[in-house]
Amino acid sequence: MDGESLLLQPFLISVSHQPNLDKKQSTQIRGTMLSKSSALSTIASLCFFWFLIFSFPSSCSALETNATDYEALMAFKSHLLLQQDSILATNWSSTAHFCSWFGVRCLNQRVISLLLSGLALQGQLSSDIANMSNLVVIDLSSNDLGGVLPSELGFLQQLRVLNVTKNSLQGRIPANLSQCGELQELDLSYNFIAGSIPEELGRLSNLRHLAVDHNNLTGRIPASLGNFSKLEYFYLHENDLVGEIPVELGKLASVTVMALRGNNHTGSIPDSIFNISTMQVMDLSINGLSGQLPKSLGSHLSSLEHLFLDSNRITGRIPTFLSNASKLTKLFLTENDLSGNIPNEFSELQNLEWFEFEYNQISGGIPYSLFNITSLQILKTRHNYLSGDLPHDLGNWLPNLREIFLSHNQFSGEIPPSICNATKLTTLEASNNSFNGPVPMMLGNLVALEHLNLQVNLLVNNPLSTRLDFFDSLVNCRNLQYLVLDSNPLNGIIPDSVGNLSSNLKVLTAISCKLKGGIPHSIGNLSSLHFLGLSNNNLQGKVPSSFVGLQNLERIYLTGNKLEGTIPTEFCSIQVLGILHLGENSFSGSIPLCFQNLTELREISLAANRLNSTVPLRFWDLVKVEGVNLSRNQLHGMLPVEMGNLKAVNIIDLSSNNFSGEIPNSVGSLQNLLALDMSQNKFQGPIPNSLSNLIVIEFLDLSLNELSGGIPPSLGSLRDLKYLNLSFNMLQGEIPTTGVFTNITSENLMGNPNLCGAPKLNFPMCSARGPGQGKKSSLVLKITIPIAATLLVVICLLVWLSLSRKKHLKNPTGSDSVPIGHQVISYYELLRATESFSESNLLGKGSSGMVYKADLSDGTVAAIKVFNMEYTRALQNFDAECEVLSNVRHRNLVKIISICSNMDFKAMVLEFMPNGSLDKWLHFESNSLSLVQRLDIVIDVAMAIEYLHHDYMMPIVHCDLKPSNVLLDEDMTAHVADFGIAKILAQDEELIRTKTLGTIGYIAPEFGLDGHVSTKVDIYSFGILLLETFTGKRPTDNMFREGLSLHQWVIKSFPGALREVLDPNLIYDLNSGEEGVTKKQSQVGELLVPIIHVALLCLKESPEERIDMRGISVQLKKIRAELKDGCGK
């Protein structure tokens, strides 16, 4: 490094450490400064030369010190692992004076600088380097040096620059670095340094640049760091620091950049740091900071340009005085608990370029004045409670607008046509609102547009046309990649101009849009298309043969239309096709033989068509298929033994066809099968014993066939089997009594008159008929008739008592009502709302009771949890759940609406979650969860448990955390449910004991063995939940036996072979380029390792070693933010 570069180096390093500058900005700034350094080359060199001469004393004995410096350099070299052709191996030799060696600079034959950046040096940093006592600059950055930072560096009294960033150093920061009184720049970033920050560093009164970011530092920030009166750059981000931010940092009167992001800081942000007038960049994001922002925020930040407070737990309103920070260009407030309105005064922020406040509780409208900020480039408002109309001239005053995100709010009115004047716009995301009126006709003016998402609104087509005319305009958007129009009543015909859309278009979806007419032949021009979704419309005619041109198409959704003709063989040429949904149309003829060529196929649905062929033999060779739905056709023939080749399949639905013959034994080899529906066919012969090998199956329907023989008792051993229907066959013999048969209903066995052994289900007892059987019949009648008469009297009495009790339940203010702060609902209202607890309204059931969907009289759709009063712990569970849900308030906890309680009946009315449980999405649903969705869900769960553990007045332990207790609302936001065995710890309690255990597979070791309950029990369960969410494997999967657990299975592949244990759906989506994940990030090892690392921290054997839930929340939010960083932040 030459002199002029050294003079500029502190500035260059500060730019590279701008915590939220994207790579492009950092490169541009750095490039500008480098060009300036070239222009000042001669002058800077001279300045540097004279600077060194007049700044440092000459040595007393050149000969003696020459030898010392030479030996120190040779010792330094000896600790390195050098290749024979490396510059140090060839250049650093005794044939030349060491002052002429590469990277060595001398003054008066004493080494004053060691500049060896970016040479890929390996080995350890030798302590002998401290023997060069005149060293002023040490730059060993961007190498691969290991070991620890030598404490002897503290002896270098002249040292002004120590830069070892981007190495592999470990150990701790030496406290005696504080003896380097002249030190101005200390950069230890991007290493593996651990331990706490020494308080002694606060003595470095000349320090201007401190960078210890991207390490493993722990502990609190020492208050002594507030003594750095000359400090300009302060980088502590991306560590594991804890505790509150010291008030003393407000004394850093010269600081321009303060970066504390990505730690575990808690408590309120001290007002003092908002009074530093020199501050230009403040990054406190991705911590656990709470409390309200000071009302005066912004009054003293006249130089502030970037303020990052996202991913914390900050509450209250956005301070109005922030508008005084007139130089502000970036303001990030996303993922907090902010409420209130956006201040009107923000119109004064005339330099604002990027403003985001997603995932808060901001309400009201967006101030009209905000759209007058002509510098605004990015506006992100998603997931708030914003409402009202957008200004009609919105686009007229935003010439620099590039991205606008308005989704998941309550906006209404028309999308202003003026938005089409914002010609630099690349992203328009307005989904999940109540926008109405026509889609703007001039969208084609947005020539830079890449993403357009208008789904789930009330948008319509131009009322003067039957064609979707706005497609004609979109043809001008030559960069368009994503076009999402789902769930709008467009009610129009797809025009031929769809084929003229951008050649870069990857996603085109218009699901549930009331589309009519045919699919245009021109659609085959969209050669880059990956995802085509046109399901649930009124499309007619044949699928055009032009689909042969869509060679990049991975997902086709055409379900729920009126398409006809034969299934096009053109699909078979799309080699990358992974999902093909053609159900609920009028396709006829046969299943194409060429489907065997679709070797990447994972899901295929041909249900509810008019197919009338056999299934091609090679169809069963699609070994990657996970879901097969051929139901409701006229398919016939026998199923071959090759059906057992579908080793990856989870769901098979062959119901309502004309299949015949025996069920092949090979079905039992489908070890991943969760649901099998073969009902309403003509299957004959016995139920194969091999079905007992389906160890994870949960749904089995063989009803309405011609099956004969006995019911295999081994079906009772299927521990996960929750639904079994064998009705209307020709089965005979004894009904098994174990497993699923303990709760089976008569409806699921009826139509088999020769079954016996279940009197409670109206099937007679089994008995062997012998020669004397007839003689005994009269005796049997003499005994049974009196018994029957007695039973009849008893039954009448019980009915009378039951009716009396129901009348008693009608009174909601009876003495048995539980006063928990919620209105009590009557039993008869629940009867009406659930259609007398009809099975058609049943959402789920367990040992403690059943859950029904209910339509209450006030229009509310709710979930009714009815407790099984025969269950010994029903009352305790009801009381525990009432106690918890009645007192807690958090957006990620399920909310209680009302109760119905009496001595004989107890029910809770809970908010309804239309998207079911996480368990169903992981193991049942054909549409798998994306990476971003999974990450959002586990963060929601973490925030809920964090609230229970840390933010409620007494810690609450859930005790049964698992995917089936994580429910998803209409926006896929997660809510933790089922507090039946929850435990509330008293203020001074960290541990209690209980005999009530959670679910096998999710139970912490200390919980299962000793009944010890602490918050760390939930941490362990959350770790299992994390692994299940990203591997797709239950902890109770049959593969985990003989000492192998889910935890151990993952550890064996972590981190190098992690891909081998991840959910294949997730890998498929990442490889396909999931939206929101850049190509580089789609490298699974890069992105998933930190998530699994968090899970492993949760699963430490000792409870004391497990991370707490607050730390989990911070880490997962950090991972999600880094995912966003790769996409533009």
Automatic annotation (TrEMBL):
Q: Which InterPro entries match?
A: Kinase-like_dom_sf (IPR011009), Leu-rich_rpt (IPR001611), Leu-rich_rpt_typical-subtyp (IPR003591), LRR_dom_sf (IPR032675), LRR_N_plant-typ (IPR013210), LRR_R13L4/SHOC2-like (IPR055414), Plant_receptor-like_S/T_kinase (IPR051809), Prot_kinase_dom (IPR000719)
Keywords recorded for this protein, A-Z:
ATP-binding, Cell membrane, Glycoprotein, Kinase, Leucine-rich repeat, Membrane, Nucleotide-binding, Phosphoprotein, Receptor, Repeat, Serine/threonine-protein kinase, Signal, Transferase, Transmembrane, Transmembrane helix
Group of enzyme by EC: transferase
Record's GO cellular component terms: plasma membrane
Q: Which residues cross the membrane?
A: 779-801
Task: Identify the domain of life.
Answer: Eukaryota
Q: Where do the annotations place ATP binding?
A: 865
MF terms from GO for this chain are: ATP binding; protein serine/threonine kinase activity
Q: Which reaction does it catalyse?
A: L-threonyl-[protein] + ATP = O-phospho-L-threonyl-[protein] + ADP + H(+); L-seryl-[protein] + ATP = O-phospho-L-seryl-[protein] + ADP + H(+)
The record describes its membrane topology as: Single-pass membrane protein
Q: Which residues form the Protein kinase domain?
A: 837-1123
Q: Give the Enzyme Commission number.
A: 2.7.11.1
Q: Where in the cell is it found?
A: Cell membrane
The similarity comment for this entry is: Belongs to the protein kinase superfamily. Ser/Thr protein kinase family.
- Report what the protein is called: non-specific serine/threonine protein kinase
